[in-house]
Amino acid sequence: MRYVSSDEDNARWDGFPFRDGDIVISTRSKSGTTWMQMICALLIFRTPDLPAPLSILSPWLDWLIVPRDEVYARLGAQAHRRFIKTHTPLDGIPLDPRATYIVVARHPLDMAVSLSHQGANLNRERMAELTGNPVPATVAERRTTVEALRRWIDRDADPADALDSLPGVLWHLSDAWRRRDDPNILLVHYADLSADLAGEMTRIAERLRLDPPTPELVEAAGFAHMRARAQDLAPDPAGILKSTAAFFRRGGSGAGRELLTGAEYAHYLRRAATLAPPDLLAWLHR
Question: Could you tell me the domains of the chain?
Fold first, then answer.
C-alpha cells in the first residue's frame, strides 16, 4: 500500500537495507511513538544518558523533512542495534524476518485530543519551507478541542489519504491486529505502559532478546523524566515545534472520554464498530 502526505512518503522504505535485529516502531501519531523509542533506547544503551538526541538515534524514515539519503547514511553508520520510527501501517513497509515490528495502540479518542493540541504546536511555515510545499492558508475558525473531537469522530476519509482520521487509525491497528500472532510482530497498549511500565518494559525486553530493565531505566522512561528532558527527547531535529516541552503535554489516558457526553461516547463506539473487528475494539477500549 502506498501512503503519501505533505510530509511523509512510505516509498522511502523501498530498498532499505535491513540488518539482523532491527526494530521498527510503527505507530499512529500521538500514540506513544516517542515513548516506545525511549524504551528501546534505554534497553539498548542501558543508561538514561543517551549518546545523542533521541531523534538522531531513532530516525523517522518516511519523513520528508529530512532528506532520504541523510537518513539512510545515519542509519548505515550506526553500530548499535537500530530502532527506526515510522507512522506507516505494516502493510506499507517491508516486513523483513530479521526485524521486529512494534505497534503501539492508544485509545483513539485520547490520540485525537493529543493530536489536536499537537497541531497548535507545529510551525507550519517552517514545515512548508523544509518540504517545498506552500504554506497552508490560515484558518480563521478556531474550534474548541471538543468541537474538533466531534468532527473527527464523524469524518469519513480514505485511510490511505488520512491516516490520522478515525478510519485511518483503525485501519493501521486492524492490520497489525491481524498479524499479532506473527513471531516478529509485537502489539503494545499505551494504557498498559501507563499502568505497569516496569512490567511492559520487561515484556518488550524479552521479545527483543535484551536484558530486563533496571529500576533506573524504568524511572527514566517515565513521563516526568521525559518531559524534563524534552529538548533531547522531543522529535524535532529540524525545528518544527514551537515548544518541545509542550510536546509532552499530559501523558495519561481518558482525555477523550472526559470531553464527551454519554450519548456522544455511545455514538463514537457505534462508529468505531463499523471500522474495526470487535475483538480489537474490546482490547483497544478497555
Answer: 10-285 (3.40.50.300)
